[in-house]
Amino acid sequence: MNETPDTPLPPPPDATPPPAKRFERSSSDRVIGGVCGGLGRYFRIDATLVRIGMVALALLGGTEPESTEDDAGDRQRDRDADGERAVARFRRARGTSPSAGTSTSAAA
After folding, report:
1. Per-residue pLDDT tens for 38-68?
2. Are 78 and 72 in contact (CB under 8 A)?
3. 49 Rama sector, left if φ>0, alpha if ψ -120 to 50, beta otherwise
4. Any idea what DSSP says for residue 62?
5. Rounded Cα distance, 100 and 90, in Å
6. Please, what is the Cα angle at 15 between 13 and 16, to 5 degrees?
């Protein structure tokens, strides 16, 4: 009923995992330093596409929008207000007021 065949079983598959993917600069596809060639090989795309992407990023200047003077003024006002609040908390904690060290009345 449950007969086993006389043929031997195939050997088990190799238990070692494949080598990890490693980024290296290209030694054959280099224009300046081989970085774009290495990125192309790592992602399995043409190095020319990587170079075009790098040039586009360099011309666009990144992804953050340019700061304007109004933004800088707003940030400075925010920092000033934060500083004033911190000083007020410190004075409340010490039990002093802004005019605690000065006397306006004349001594007789």
Report:
1. 888 888 899 899 999 988 988 887 656 666 6
2. no
3. alpha
4. -
5. 13
6. 125
